[in-house]
Design brief:
The protein is mostly helical. The protein has helices spanning 2-16, 21-27, 30-55, 62-68, 73-81, 85-92, 103-116. It is globular, with a radius of gyration of 16 Å.
Length: 130
């Protein structure tokens, strides 16, 4: 059921972001769009956490991460290409009550933040500590 919700939310985001007059009329005010986006990101974060809890950090693959968080596809693909997939997922889950990342994921998170500047609100040396 959640997977269907995530897919529908992504579809709504794509339609709303298309810029057409019809899409703008259908999407409502910007606050509705932001609310939908927030719900989508929370659902994807929860799905990522469940994936890591079920499969473990070592078995986290790009395919599984994309299935859990399809709206984050560009960042996930970029992180995977750089060998930092666990690090990005650790960053995405850092404020959640989820399974603790291994030391390697902490190191990857710091490297991801250094290379790609995310999240911008926290300096990379204080981002995560094992």
């Amino acid at each position: 059921m959640r997977s269907l919700f995530v897919r529908m939310a992504v579809l709504c985001l794509l339609i709303a972001g298309s810029g057409s007059g019809l899409a703008r009329a259908a999407s409502g005010p910007d606050s509705d769009f932001e609310a939908l986006r927030t719900v989508l990101l929370k659902a994807e974060t929860k799905a990522l956490c469940e994936t890591v809890q079920r499969k473990g950090w070592k078995d986290l693959t790009l395919e599984r991460a994309l299935r859990a968080a399809p709206s984050q596809d560009e960042a996930l693909v970029e992180a995977n290409a750089a060998g930092l997939l666990q690090g990005l997922v650790a960053l995405m889950l850092r404020d959640e009550s989820c399974i603790e990342p291994p030391a390697e994921a902490f190191a990857q998170a710091q490297e991801y933040s250094r290379r790609f500047g995310w999240p911008a609100s926290a300096p990379s040396d204080t981002l995560l500590a094992p």
